[in-house]
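Consider this one:
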Amino acid sequence: VYKRQALKDEDWATWSIKLGWPVQGVFPPGMVDYTHINGVHRSHNKQLLLTSDDWGLVNLFRYPVAAEGNKSYSYRGHSEHVVRAIFTPDDKHVFSVGGYDKAVMQWKVL
C-alpha cells in the first residue's frame, strides 16, 4: 500500500486495536493516557464493540464508536483490571480474563 487513503474505507474482517477511526470514542472524556483501555474486540456481526479496562470493567458499545462520549454499558465482575474480553463466534456470549484475580468469566449477550 503506497497511499494511506487507499485503506480509508477498508472493511476489515476484525477490529481488535484500540486506536482507529471506528473506535476513537471508547476513551473516557479528557483521558490523555490511553493505556487504561487494555483491549478492544468487535463482534462478528459488526454491531457491538467490547473494551476491557484497568478499572475492572467490561464495556459494551454499539459499533462504530466514532465520537467521544458515546454511551456504553459497563459490567463489573473482576476484582482488578480486565486483560481482555472477546465475543464467541456466534456473538451470543463474551469471555473476559482478569489480571490479578486470574479469573475467566462468561457473559451472556442479551
